[in-house]
UniProtKB/TrEMBL annotation:
Lineage: Bacteria, Bacillati, Actinomycetota, Actinomycetes, Micrococcales
Superkingdom of origin: Bacteria
Range of residues in the leader sequence: none
InterPro entries, A to Z: ASHA1/2-like_C (IPR013538), START-like_dom_sf (IPR023393)
Family assignment from sequence similarity: Belongs to the AHA1 family.
Organism: Neomicrococcus lactis
Protein name as annotated: Uncharacterized protein YndB with AHSA1/START domain
CDD domains per UniProt: SRPBCC_CalC_Aha1-like (cd07814)
Residue ranges occupied by any Activator of Hsp90 ATPase homologue 1/2-like C-terminal domain in the UniProt entry: 23-159, 190-319
């Protein structure tokens, strides 16, 4: 078990957890930065976690939920107040409603995660600061220490699993719920380069094409929240056209944007697309969480081969756009 000490300071209202790992500092950092990885160890063994949002940048936010052995659900959130990769990050941690908003009836606390190299690998120090002695005692009674020890007992297996999270695996889709899927891919480029490739029309027309034989004659980009965007593709042989349009809801360059999306000419509700870019040693982890109106729509879209089409585009992005920028 990686936890080497747990100390509670009732005067300072803190609980400090130290854990040591036989991996390099960057590897440990990425386990916390990658929503696929932190989901595998943040929750206790009997209450596994699912991160549906994880914006590891100053001003960013995470939303996760833990699922109990009988199907119970407990939601939590992080607000990132400071991020200094790969050495530290600070968050406000609290209980959340199902939509990720703070549950004001439950306490919050501040947590600072510090990462440092050691002679045998790396060390994580987590300092939780409570608002009152009553709050500290309440969370300890709720099993915070035991839950943390249980959660941390799973991290070694995640750190050892290099293959599941390596660059070169291609585009992958994970079903998060009846209405949400998460699409991930490590792009060989910086976060700024990947951001620009998603927001500069001339770059988008070079790679965002799906299978060969299509062009992108219309690429209107929304620059500010509230603005509309529009994208249209045309088959070079049949001249068939299709496209999508929507609204930019949030934008925090170069790590997060949220848009609605709807096929042009189709009736019905839009999807919501949350794009997050996370810097890694091997490049940039692109995470796209798509929220569909219902399970039937989700399954219908996945059955179209969407993931394969996205992989074709991302390969083009790496090989024809980012490689030429080096």
């Amino acid at each position: 078990m990686p936890v080497t000490s747990v100390e509670k300071d009732l005067d300072a209202l803190t609980m400090t957890i130290v854990a040591d790992f036989a991996v390099p500092l960057q590897r440990l950092w990425e386990a916390y930065a990658d929503p696929r990885q932190i989901s595998k160890f943040w929750g206790p063994e009997t209450w596994p976690a699912t991160f549906v949002r994880h914006d590891m940048a100053t001003g960013g936010r995470s939303h996760y939920y833990m699922t109990g052995p009988n199907g119970e659900r407990s939601d939590g959130f992080w607000e990132f107040t400071s991020v200094n990769p790969p050495h530290s990050f600070e968050v406000v941690d609290g209980f959340a409603n199902a939509d990720g908003t703070q549950n004001p009836e439950m306490p919050t606390m501040k947590m600072r995660f510090q990462f440092e190299e050691t002679p045998t690998g790396s060390r994580m120090t987590n300092i939780a600061t409570f608002n009152s002695l009553e709050q500290l005692e309440q969370l300890i009674e709720m099993g915070m220490e035991e839950g943390t020890r249980s959660a941390m007992s799973q991290i070694d297996a995640v750190l050892a699993d290099l293959a599941s999270f390596a660059a070169g695996r291609g585009t992958e889709t994970q079903i998060l719920s009846d209405t949400q899927v998460r699409i991930t891919r490590v792009i060989r480029g910086t976060a700024q380069q990947v951001w620009d490739a998603h927001n500069e029309p001339e770059l988008m027309k070079r790679w965002l094409l799906g299978p060969d034989g299509w062009t992108m004659p219309v690429c209107k980009v929304a620059q500010e929240p509230g603005e509309q965007y529009r994208q249209e593709w045309e088959n070079t042989e049949t001249k068939e056209r299709f496209g999508f349009e929507g609204e930019l809801l949030e934008s925090a360059a170069p790590y997060r944007s949220v848009t609605t999306e709807k096929m042009i000419g189709m009736e019905g509700p839009s999807t919501q697309n949350e794009l997050t870019l996370t810097p890694l040693e091997a490049g940039t982890l692109l995470t796209l969480v798509i929220t569909y109106p219902d399970v039937a729509t989700r399954d219908m879209v996945l059955a179209t081969g969407m993931t394969d089409g996205m992989e074709t585009s991302y390969l083009r992005l790496e090989n024809e756009v980012l490689a030429s920028a080096e």
